[in-house]
Amino acid sequence: MGKSFIKNHPTLLIFLALLALFTLGVTIMSEAYGTAFISTSFVKTLGKTLCLCLVAIAMDVVWGYAGILSLGHFAFFGLGGYMVGMWLMYERTQEVVLRSLENQVIPPTETEISDAIATQIFGVVGSADFPLIWSFAHSLTLQLILVVAVPGLLALVFGWLAFRSRVTGVYLSILTQAMTLALALYLFQNDSGLRGNNGLSGLQNLPHVTAPQSEISMWFLWASAAALGLGYLFFTMMLTGKFGMVVKGIRDNEQRVRFLGYEVEHYKLFLFTVTAIVAAVAGALYYPQAGIINPAEIMPIASIYLAVWVAIGGRGRLYGAVIGAAFVSLLSTWFTGGQAPDIPLGFYTISWVDWWQVLLGISFVLVTLYAPKGIGGLFDLLKCKEVQK
Amino acid sequence: MSTLLEVSGVSVSFDGFKAINNLSFQIGKAEMRAVIGPNGAGKTTFMDIITGKTKPDEGRVIWGDRSISLLGMSEAKIAQQGVCRKFQKPTVFEDQSVCDNLMMALKRRRSVWDVLKYRPAADIARLEQLADEIGLLGEFNRQSGELSHGQKQWLEIGMLLAQDPKLLLVDEPAAGMTPSEREHTTNLLVEAAKTRAVVVVEHDMEFIRRLNCKVTVLHEGSVLAEGSLDHVTSNQEVIDVYLGR
Amino acid sequence: MKRLFFACLAVLAWATAGQAEGPLQDILQQHRALIEKPSRTSIGPAINDIASSGLPQAQSMLQAWEAKNLWQRDADGLFFIGKAAGAELTLTDVDTGEALAPVEKSAAEQLKPNAGVRKLISSALVQFQLSDPDETRRLQSLDSIARRPEADHLAPLQASIETEENGAIRARKERLVKLLSITFAETVGDRVAAIQGVSGDLNLEVRAALNPLLATTRKVTDQIPAGENVAKIMRLGKDLTEEQAYAVLVDAGFARPRVSPTALKDALAANITDGTVGGVPVANLTDLEARIRAYTALAEAGTVPPFVTDDEFREALRTHVIYDAYNEPNSDVTNAAKASLKAIDLNVSMNQAMDLGLDALSLASIYFLAAIGLAITFGVMGVINMAHGEFIMMGAYTGYVVQQFIPNHTLSLVVALPLAFIITFAAGVAMERLVIRKLYHRPLETLLATFGISIALQQLAKNIFGTQARPLTAPGWLDGAWVLNDVVSISFIRIAIFVLAVGFLCLFLFIMKKTRLGLETRAVTQNPRMASSMGINPDKVNMLTFGLGSGIAGIAGVAIGLFAKVTSELGNDYIVQSFMTVVVGGVGNIWGTLAGAAMIGTLQKGIEWLNPSNTLAAQTFMIIFIIIFIQFRPRGIVALKGRAAGD
C-alpha cells in the first residue's frame, strides 16, 4: 500500500481522520479522562454504536458488494459476544467464588471451586455441571480464538452447503434467516449450555480489574474505534483491485463471472466467512459494553434491522453502512429511550416510544422505493453539483 | 488434424421433452464451424452442455489432448480449460470500467488467493493494447454501462480475446449489427479460427456463407446433416425441415 | 321350668312388641346386643341381615348409622335416626320415617361405631347405591368405586348387574367388575382370567388396575427366601453400578457408609489442631489426596471411623443379593399382568402413532393455511412478502374486533371470515399498488420494503391493541374433541382447520383451472409480455393475485387465532415456517406447497415425539433438516424442470 493507494481512496483517509477526531473528542469529554461532559452510559452507547458500525460494514460487503442479502450476520455477531461472554462470566464468577470460599476452615480443592462456579452460573437453569462447550472458558486466549473460530466455522459450513447447491437471491435470504432462527431457538433451550433465555450477564465487570466503569467504558470505546478503523481499512484494501471487481461482477451477473472462469462459489464462501468473522469480532467488543447477551438478541429480526441500517445508509459503499448504522441506531436509542418529546395533537398524543417503529418501517419503505442509494446517495448529489459548477 | 472437442451420444431431456437426442459432434484445434437449425433444434442447450451449465442425462464430452471429460466439471473449471462463450445479448459488467472488464477477463490465475494478491501494474500495457484492438482505448476508464450497444459488443469480444480461449462458442454474433460491423465481426472470427476452434450458432445464412466453413445442421436435438453450406442446403431433409415449418 | 316359661314369655312379649314396631326395627332388635357394642369382627351378620332384608328404608338407616346418627332410646331400647339440636333431640322412626316429638338428649344414647365397622356399613351401602332408582346416583357410586376400588365392592357390584336396566350403565358395571376382579377376585384363576380378559384394552382404568400388580420393592438379602415373587435380580455393572449397589446395601443397613467428600471435609474441619490435621498443614488440604492422607492419620488415631476399604466394599457386594420383588406374591398373576400390559403397550403405541399422525396432519393443515397465500404471491408472482405474517395477524385481530360487536360466537365467526378476507385483500391490493409494483424485478428490495411494512404494521397493532394477548373465542360447538379412545383424540378446532385447508386447496384449484382470473394469472406467470399482447392486463392480474394471496392469509389468521394467542407478534411465529413450506415444497405449484406443509408438519411432530420435552429443539432440528434437504432438492419437492424453471 503506497501513497497512491490513499490518494485513490480519499474517503478512507477522511473516514479514518474523522474516526480519530471522534475518539479524541469523546476522550476529552469523558468522565474518566476529561471534562466529564458526557456520561459513562453515553460513552457506552457510543462504543456500542461503533461496534454496530463495524458489523454494518461487514453486512455491506456481503450484501452491497457481493449481493448476498444475508439475514444471519447478526447471529455471527451474537455468537462472538457469547464466546467472549463465556470467559468474562467464568472468570468473574471464579473471583466471586474464591472470595466466598476464602474464609472456610479447610481450603477448597480445585473440584470444589469448579463445582461452586458451575452452580453459581448454571443454577438458574437447574444444572450444576459445566457443559462440554465451557471446556475452554477458563482461558482468555482460547476463548478469543473461539470468537473467530466458531462463527467462522458456522459460516463456512453453512455457506458451503448453501452456495454449493446454488441457492441465490431471496432463497438464500430465507435460508440464512432460517439458520438464524434455528440458532436462536437452540440457544433459548436451557440445556443448550449457555443458560437458555437468561443468557450471559454481568459482562460489564472485567475480572481482575479494579478500575471504575467510567474508565473501562473508555477502553472499550478505544478498542471499538480501533477495530472499526482496521475493519474499514481491511475491507477497502480487499475490495479495491481485481477481487473487488470480481465480487461486484458476481453481484451483477453471476453466470457471466462463472463463464469467465471464476469459481463464484469460492468467492462467495470466502466473503461470507470473512464478514462473519468481522461481525463476530464486533460482537465480542459490543457485549462487554452492553453487559448482557441473550438469545432474543440474535433472533432474525436483528439481522433484518442490520440490513435496514445498511440500506438507509446506502449500500455498496462502506461509509454508507457506517452512516446508516450510526444514524439509525442512535436515533432509535433516542426515540425509544423516551427522550424525544411527545407530540400532542389534541385528540391524541403521539408518543415516540410507540410510534418510532412505525416511522422507521415507513421511512424504510420510502428509502427503498425512492432513494435506493440511501443517505450515502446524497454525497453523490453533492459531487455532481460540484462537477456542474 | 487432431480433435479438440468430442461430444458423443449426448442426450438430455426436460420433463420428458428431449432437447438433445443422441447428439455427436467433434471439432479440431483450429477450425471454424457453423451450427444452424430451426428454433427448438437444441442449439442453445448444446452450448449449455459444453459449458457445463446443463448436465446431460447420458453421453460423453471429451476435451483436449489429454482427453479429459468435461462432464462433472463446474462452469468455471471448464472456462479455465479454455472454453469461452459469447452470449447473444452483450453482457458486460456495466458498473465497472472498460479496463476493469478486460482485467477480469485477462487470462490469469482465477483462485481467490491469486486474485487477492493480484497487482495490475504489469498487465496495464497488455490491457491497453487489447482496448486498442477493439477500438476502445479512448474509453479505457469509462463505465462500460455508458457505452453504446455496438461498443459493448466490441468490449465483449475484447474480453473473449483477453481470455485467450482454445474454443470459442459464439451465439448469434451478427444479431442487431450494421453491415459494416458484421463484416468486421466476420473477419475477426475468421482470424480467430486460424489459431483456435470457433463454433458459431447463427440463423443468418448470408453470414454463414461468408464464414465459408463446415456447417452442422441440428434438428430435434440431433445432427441432421454436416458438410459445406452448399452440401447441406441441397440436402432434401434439410430443405424439408426448414421449409416445412 | 319356671325359668323357661318366663323366658318364653319374654320372647313372646318382645316378639309381639317388635311386631308392632316395624320390620326393620325387628331386625335391629334381633341383633340388639351386637349393634349396641359393635366390633369389626362380629357385626357382619347384623349388617348382612339389614342389607339383605330387601327393605327400602334400610338404606337411610344404614347411612344414618354410618354417619353416627343412629340413637337408641334408653326407655325401650328401640333404635331411631336422631338429629340433635342443642340439648334437644328429634328422633325419627327407622321404618316409617315419622319424626317423633323432640325429647331431651339424655333420653337416648348415640351409637358411635368405630372406623372398621363404618367401613363395613359403607360397603353394604354400595349395593343400595348401585341399584338406586336415580341413574346419576348409580353413576356416582360407580365413579367412586372406580376411584377407590375395594374388595368389598366386588360382590354387590356383581349382584347389581342382573337388575340393571340401563345398557350403558350395565356395560360400565360389567367393566368395573372385570377391573375389580383383577385385584380382588377370590381365586388366582379368576384373577388371571380377568387379567387376560383385558389384554390389549386401551382404557386408562385398565392400566391403572394392572400397573399396581407389577409394583416392585427393592430388597437386599444374602439368600432369596423361598416363595418370593422375584421380578428381577440386579446384576452388578449392568442394572446397577457398584456404587449404586453399595448405596443400597448401606441404606438397608448391610454395610458401613463410605466417607463422602463432604463428610471427609467436615471431619477434617472438626479435628484441626494447631493449624494441622492429622499432621497435614491446613493450607495443604487443597487437593483430595492430601485430605485422604490427613483423614487416614485421624482414623489411625481412632478419632474418626476408618475408610471403607476396597476389600470390605467388594466383600459386601459379593455376599449380598439385590433384587426387585413383586408386591403381589403370586407369580401367575404377575406373569399374566405382564403379558396383558405388553399387549396393551403394543396397542397403545399403535394408537399413539395414529394420534401422532393426526397431530401431524393438523399441524400440516395449519402450515398449509398459513403458506398458501404466500405460495400464491411468492410462487405465482415471484414476489416475496415479508408482511405476510402481518396479514395473518390482521385477520386474527379482525376476528377479535368482530367478537366485540357480535357476542354470538358462531355468528361472529361467520361475519369475521369474509370480513378478514375483505380487509386483508384491500391491504394486499394497496400494498401491491403502492410498493410492490414499483419493485418488480428487484426481489431483494421487495423483501426489504415489505419488511419495512411488516415492522410498521406490527407496531401499529401494538399501539392499537396493546401488547397483551387478545382472546378470539371459538364457538361452543368447536370446543371439545373427537375422542376415539383414551389414546387417540383430536380437537374439533383442528378438524375444522383441516376442513378449511382442504376447502382452500379446492378453491385455489378451482380459481386457477376454471376461472378467467386463473387463466390470466397462469398466462402472466408464464410469459407476461405475451399475455399483455393478448389483451390481458398484467397489472390488474398481479394486483388481484396479490390481493387473493393476502385475503387467504387473513382467513388463515382467523383460523389460527381460534387456537393461538392473538398478539401483534402472531405473524412472526408463522412467517419462517410458511417460507420453509413454500421453499421445501417447490415454488409455483400448489401441490408442492401441500407436500411441503405435509413434510414440515410430519417432521416437526416426529421430532417432538422423539424428544417430547423440548419443542424448541424440535424446531431447531427441523430447520437444520430443511437446510440439508435443500442441498439435495434445491428447487423443492415438486420442482419445475428445464427452461420453465428459469435461472
UniProtKB/TrEMBL annotation, chain A:
Claim: Membrane is one of the keywords in the record: yes
Metal-binding keyword on record: no
Membrane topology: Multi-pass membrane protein
Coiled coil: none
InterPro entries, sorted: ABC_transp_permease (IPR001851), LivM-like (IPR043428)
Subcellular location: Cell membrane
Molecular function in Gene Ontology: branched-chain amino acid transmembrane transporter activity
Residues in the signal sequence: none
Alphabetical UniProt keywords: Cell membrane, Membrane, Transmembrane, Transmembrane helix
GO CC list: plasma membrane
Protein name as catalogued: Urea ABC transporter permease subunit UrtC
Protein's organism: Donghicola mangrovi
UniProtKB/TrEMBL annotation, chain B:
InterPro entries tied to this protein: AAA+_ATPase, ABC_AA/LPS_Transport, ABC_transporter-like_ATP-bd, ABC_transptr_urea_ATP-bd_UrtD, P-loop_NTPase
Domain ABC transporter: 5-245
The UniProt record lists the keyword Transmembrane: no
Keywords (A to Z) from UniProt: ATP-binding, Nucleotide-binding, Transport
GO MF annotation list: ATP binding; ATP hydrolysis activity
UniProt superkingdom: Bacteria
GO cellular component, one term: plasma membrane
PANTHER family: CONSERVED COMPONENT OF ABC TRANSPORTER FOR NATURAL AMINO ACIDS-RELATED, HIGH-AFFINITY BRANCHED-CHAIN AMINO ACID TRANSPORT ATP-BINDING PROTEIN
UniProt cross-references to NCBIfam families, sorted A to Z: urea_trans_UrtD (TIGR03411)
Name this polypeptide is given: Urea ABC transporter ATP-binding protein UrtD
Source species of the chain: Donghicola mangrovi
Highest classification ranks of the organism: Bacteria, Pseudomonadati, Pseudomonadota, Alphaproteobacteria, Rhodobacterales
TrEMBL record, chain C:
Record's keyword terms, sorted: Amino-acid transport, Cell membrane, Membrane, Signal, Transmembrane, Transmembrane helix, Transport
Primary site of residence: membrane
GO biological process: amino acid transport
Signal peptide start-end: 1-20
Cellular component annotations (GO), alphabetically ordered: plasma membrane
InterPro entries (alphabetical): ABC_transp_permease (IPR001851), ABC_UrtB_bac (IPR017779), BCAA_transport_permease (IPR052157)
Topological relation to the membrane, as annotated: Multi-pass membrane protein
Stretches that traverse the bilayer: 360-384, 413-431, 492-512, 543-563, 575-603, 615-632
UniProt cross-references to Pfam families, sorted A to Z: BPD_transp_2
Compartments (UniProt record): Cell membrane
GO molecular function: transmembrane transporter activity
Family: Belongs to the binding-protein-dependent transport system permease family. LivHM subfamily.
Name under which the protein is recorded: Urea ABC transporter permease subunit UrtB
Species whose genome carries this gene: Donghicola mangrovi
